[in-house]
Design goal:
Layout: E1 14-18, E2 37-41, H1 47-53, E3 68-70, E4 73-75
Antiparallel strand pairs: 1-2, 3-4
Length: 82
């Protein structure tokens, strides 16, 4: 059986560069703390889903360490990786 082809609008095996700051690093293995690292994904996951997939709980309430940025703009977790 031949696997179905991926839709052109949905990237397959895309990559984002992620870095965590402050106490959010406590949830990461040592080699991923305080450094930018690649995150590979399929489809178009929300930023908050990528954060949770890496083992960092998505904050329910804003706090200084909960600030996320895409480029230089604040991000609320609803943006999609593409």
């Amino acid at each position: 059986m031949t696997p179905p082809l991926a839709k052109p609008s949905v990237p397959s095996g895309a990559q984002a560069h992620i870095r965590f700051y402050a106490e959010l690093n406590d949830f990461l293995p040592d080699e991923r703390r305080q450094v930018t690292f690649p995150y590979r994904f399929r489809g178009r996951p929300a930023v908050k889903d990528a954060i949770e997939a890496l083992g960092v709980p998505h904050p329910l309430a804003p706090s200084p360490s909960a600030l996320r940025a895409v480029g230089k703009e604040p991000e609320d977790g609803g943006w999609l990786l593409a």
